[in-house]
Amino acid sequence: MFKNILIIGFGMIGSSIARTVIKKNKSIKIFAFDKSPSLKIRINKSKLKRVKVFKSLNEIKDQNIDFIIICTPMLQYQSIFKKLNDIDLRQTIVTDVGSTKVNIEKIYIQKKYQFNFIPSHPIAGIEKAGLENGFDGLFTNRYNIICPLKKSSKTHINKVIKFWRSLNMKTEIMSSKEHDKVLSLTSHLPHLISYSLVLTAMKKDTSLNSKLVKFSAGGFRDFTRVAGSDPEMWRDIFLANSSQIQKLTNNFISELKEFSRNLNKGNSYNLLTKLKKTKNVRDKIIKARQAGKFIPND
Amino acid sequence: MFKNILIIGFGMIGSSIARTVIKKNKSIKIFAFDKSPSLKIRINKSKLKRVKVFKSLNEIKDQNIDFIIICTPMLQYQSIFKKLNDIDLRQTIVTDVGSTKVNIEKIYIQKKYQFNFIPSHPIAGIEKAGLENGFDGLFTNRYNIICPLKKSSKTHINKVIKFWRSLNMKTEIMSSKEHDKVLSLTSHLPHLISYSLVLTAMKKDTSLNSKLVKFSAGGFRDFTRVAGSDPEMWRDIFLANSSQIQKLTNNFISELKEFSRNLNKGNSYNLLTKLKKTKNVRDKIIKARQAGKFIPND
Q1: pTM higher than 0.80, yes or no?
Q2: Do A279 and B242 touch (CB under 8 A)?
Q3: Considering the domain B178-287, what is its CATH architecture?
Q4: ipTM of predicted assembly, 2 dp
Q5: Closest CA in chain A for residue B266
């Protein structure tokens, strides 16, 4: 297993990885590098004193870092990759947690970078950002999609798989292209829809605004949770997987129009058939233990 | 306060009312009337032995029922209203929990029914149906919209308000028309969208289906929760508030198209501005304690 892990970008995901590793294995050393000027204070306040803070990526060699996990917004990858490439990383494996994969693979290949890069994507998250919101257990039972490059060595891939499994994750191997296709459906479109619904509601008569909040328990609140996700992160995701998302949005609009037509015609039978179809999917998600748990009253 | 309460339609909502009343006030008697042939067995199994089962609505007079709460699907209201109207209910107040109000008011007025009817709508629910899924506390801190009719007496309205408040609900008075407008935004459109997204996803390459389930934690699962709601109930709601919902669906489609245009043009600034706007609404809902609580891992 890895002995010295560096987490670049120590936000909610980064700190959740650190917390889980700390709980699982006391002998692994964890280091963090982040733009936040108060990182050290925040880490100490969050009872993460075992995490040592890097002042620069040049410390990678001094500390014999054997595993690097990039957890920054994806727009920062270019400059991070560039810096990593200037360091001798033959003994190090690099992975990331980014939500799109085709764009990242492209950057890496076009620039002919040499470090050992095995992209991954843990499908786990909450809508709150910041290292203070991370927690041990975020990854339990969740899936991690690993998208090896053509030149990735089996040994390296297996090490990355083993690492994520040690955080209680399930792993799947996929091409970057397939990853982006699947995720456009299970994550990107749902987020785009949530943002759009909240915007639609806000555009309505502003006198509704307080009512919107008061009566949100009727369904609206579920969408605001997703739409409360980090805006910069999601702009990057939408732009990175733009064409897939546009295609799906069109399919979704067709579905909405068909629904509306059925309403307009008062077609009770068609409506019921549609509504009954969807229940099945929810049951499958619950069985696969991917549903999470919603408590209606806080 | 009421002494003898009859709940017509003893499902998730009905049983949650019973459970909460039982916990709050040991002296109130609760009766249930429902189509389910095994109602008595199910009630006893659910530790609700204090609830007595009516064989017919004719028992209303014998038991001095002073408060009736209709908790059935809305399509059953017509026949229930008809039966209630044949009974002398001068000493009884009738309310309901239906999710649309204009249609119900219309039925009552057109048929010139005489019983004391004060429609209400508790904005609380979970996606699971059936009396076994009800629980004490479902209504805590949630809002209840009461839509009195023109002829409703103040004394009766106040009694209904007092009842819902005794279940720890907050109450608001609204016209039926306003209710349906507000709810189309906070509940009906969100449900229509959830159903449509799940249908869109199901239409995609069926080989995706297991992936859809596995990777649903990226956002999709939140929609399946809402889309797992009772199909018959939601067909009735959609049809009852059809024109409001169609109007809103059009607004929502425009918003989606604008989003898609911004993606197509790669307009990063516009995208970010949009995404930032929505965060505010979530914060307000949390402050108003209407957010519920989501635990990402079950």
Answers
A1: yes
A2: no
A3: Orthogonal Bundle (1.10)
A4: 0.88
A5: A239
